[in-house]
Amino acid sequence: MEKKTKKLSIILDNAARDSKPTIQVSTIEKISLNESYIIQAESINLRLARGEKLTGLKMGFTSKAKMEQMGVHDMIWGRLTNTMEIQDKGIMNLDKFIHPRAEPEIAFLLKKNINSTITIEEAESCISGLASAIEIIDSRYKNFKFSLEDVIADNCSSSGYVIGEWHAPNTDISNVGITIGANGKIEASGNSNAILGNPLQSLVEAVRLSLKYGQELKKGMIILAGAATSAIAINPGDTIEANFGSLGNLSFNAK
Ligand code: 0L1
Ligand code: MG
Q1: Minimum CA distance residue for ligand 1 atom 6
Q2: Which of 6, 58, 116, 175 has the fewest CB atoms within 10 Å distance of its CB?
Q3: Whose CA is nearest to atom 2 of ligand 1?
Q4: Residue 1 pLDDT more than 60?
Q5: Closest ligand 1 atom to the C-alpha of 70?
């Protein structure tokens, strides 16, 4: 098993490094859900061995609509590293991406190491802040097409993130209107309550899944809660802007 997962993790790492799409790894070798998480971990370990630092986790399929669309019954999760970060109002270098899309999310900053499951009532006490965020998803697969196992192996498409100003942990994020668009035109709109009813529930699920798969959650890590709207395409020259009401605006330029 080890040899197979290693081989597929290198294919995905090369696709990400070279910004060149690959065929779905599940068409090269049959893989189970468990193996897809091993491939993800091995692929991220290749990045860490090159000096990247793990900065947090991203949650995916945290809206009922997206789960139903994919025919799955659980969320998925991936890993964030420091080289994925794009500054608010900064530049996104498109040479590093294949066919990127942007989706508005909520981010949490962990206040402490977390070693056991939490309830939604306990979630606030686990964070030192929360912020508006944009995740850049960029499937390493041709035509953004994949099976569930493929997308998990591919770090759940995660390839970039922008984080806004941190707000107090008790900021109400249960009902925040959110829009995202390009060049002054809104392309998708939604509400934070599309994220599992309340984005804090996504933190609860992130803790559950990280414990299940043996991924440590440490003080200072960022957790991306999942998308509040569908993802929009990012094209050369675009200014991508997302509005999060009282949480503020985020933007970046794609060059
Ligand atoms: O919600 C997500 O971030 C899911 C990402 C994986 C699926 C996709 O690439 O759309
Ligand atoms: Mg996302």
Answers
A1: 156
A2: 116
A3: 60
A4: no
A5: 7
Task: Return d(Cα 201, Cα 109) in angstroms, integer.
Answer: 15
In order of 41, 65, 99, 239, 242, the CA distances from 233 in angstroms are: 27, 19, 8, 11, 13
Whole-complex ipTM: 0.93
Residues 6+ apart with CB under 8 A from 194: 63, 65, 227, 228, 229
Q: Which ligand is nearest to the CA of 101?
A: 1
Beta carbon of 134 within 6 Å of any ligand 1 atom: no
Structure tokens that stand for 222 in this block: 């960022």
What are the structural domain ranges in the chain?
2-254
Tell me the whole-structure pTM to 2 decimals: 0.96
59 Cα–ligand 2 center, Å: 6
Show the beta-strand stretches assigned E in 97-193. Answer: 101-110, 127-137, 158-163, 177-182, 185-191
CATH topology of domain 2-254: Fumarylacetoacetate hydrolase; domain 2 (3.90.850)
Closest by CA to 139, choosing from 109, 97, 83, is 97
* 148 vs 178: CA distance, rounded Å: 27
In residues, how long is the chain?
Answer: 255
Find residue 181's DSSP bridge partners.
186, 241
